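Figure 2 data, in text form.
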Amino acid sequence: MSNNVLVRFFLGLLFPIYLFSQSANNIEIKQIDEQLALQKQYILNIIKNINNKIYLKTDINQNKKNVKLLTSKIHINTSKNNTLAVKRDEVQLLILKQQASYENTLKNIIKGKQTFKDKEYFIKLLNNNIIELNKEILLPYTKTYENEKIKENIVSKQYTKNYIELQKQTNTQSFVLKYLLEHMYLYRQTNFFIDEFNLAYLMSTIDSISFISYLSEFTSYYFNFTIGEIIIVLLIIFFIRILNTRIINIVAGFIAKIFIRKKYDDSEDIRAYLQKTIDRPLVLSLYIFSIHIAIHILIKDPTIIQQILPWINTIYISLLTWTLYSLLNNGINVYANTLLTKYPNVRKEMIIFILRIVKIILILLVILFLFSQLGIDIKAIAASLGVGGIAIALASKDTLANFFGSLNIMTDNSFSQGDWIQTNDVEGTVVDIRMRSTRIRTFDNAMITIPNSQLANTPIRNWSKRKIGRRIKMYLGITYESKMEDIIQLKKDLYDMLENHSKIASPKNIESTKTKKFEAIKKDDLSGVKKTLLVYIDKYNNSSIDILIYCFSKSPAWEDWLITKEDVLIKISSLVKKNNCSFAYPTQTIMLNKKLT
């Protein structure tokens, strides 16, 4: 009986202990569940941010300042032999760097999702960061932590706090990245065309065909490429060929819709210009791209690929430069007339001159890019040019003189393309003003090239710099048998005829520019407007009484001047008859002395 009582007594003591232990276990399980729920919610928030393409809002500049500050503190404490303070700051520095790396990983995941990276990209990105987190970065600080965690001084407490924070952060980040790696479908859907439908997949599929696999083994052993690789290369070239036959019109039409307004009636011509501009560069770039892919497929030696790639990249840049220059050049050709009509002060020679300078700059940039791709030190080349600058300047002084001579011609506006000019030795029409020389077409249809330095220092007579006024000057000889009254009336009729003539410049039909402002140069003189009209009995000649006729045609064009002059001559003949006068012609009167006879 006593034994039963004793057993009951012990059971009564153990039951509350059992209940307490069960309750403690339930509390611990509940805490673990809450912790897992919080971690799960944290990860789901991260995945939600990734899907919504929301970047973390950490202040990068502040992070850099904190890193810089901690680095300086470490140097100071090291110099003062404050070992514990140094380790405290080193742990804090690890926390900041680890945090920055973690956030950069999440940003790269979002960018990879936006740019449709393949599955391997995300796997490699996450694995690399997980490996970094699994490195035992806390191991050098663990022994110090065990010694300092029981101490009560400020530095020890700060060190302990930093150690625990770094440990928690490492575990949390590792847990999150592993979860993202194992549950990639939550933020990135599997895409067959991106993940599986690639060149390697196609080549392996072709080479796995039974009757091709033997050939592939043979070619792979002797020629270092497989049948699948050759087929893929040929398919790429065939696809590029089809693309070249159709893409030109599509791209030209697309650009035309964007850049060409509906108000232009010559939109078809502009489209032809655009097609001409992008035709060859685009075709060549696509063929170069196919060769680029073929090199990566067929050549297995990375050293050879690295030697070829600089040249291919330079070709890409050259084609891009060619396209940009062609767009600029053809665009100016298309809109030049509209531009010159809208802005009369713009000179087409200046536009062409600027285009040539742009062309030279673009060529130099391509050459510099090639040098950089080939590993040539551009700074060394620039330094050598600086040392040999004097020799280069002396060797190219004539070229520089001609270049600055062309600038003088442009800025002074001495003449323009198409002007009729006359120098000491040359007379003709300006064909082209180049960077070094000017070409002139003479009236006997010969082409003369004159250096701009010589032309800039030569007196130039520009017959085209006239808006109104090509001179008509003649002497009208009237016979001595005509009456003076008739000659005076003829003179008046001639003046009235010229003053009222529609093609003769006179004060009556040409308005002068009148202004109250002070003018250093009269506009009429600057534009070459001449409206002088003079008709006078000038002198008694050997066999005639001469009437001076001096006037200017309204048109400066030579053919119009000839037509005007012809009409004036015809009307002069009518007026001479009307006034009972006669044209004089050279005569000689012989006087004989009667005594001699």
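Caption note: Confidence is low (pLDDT under 50) at residues 1-25.
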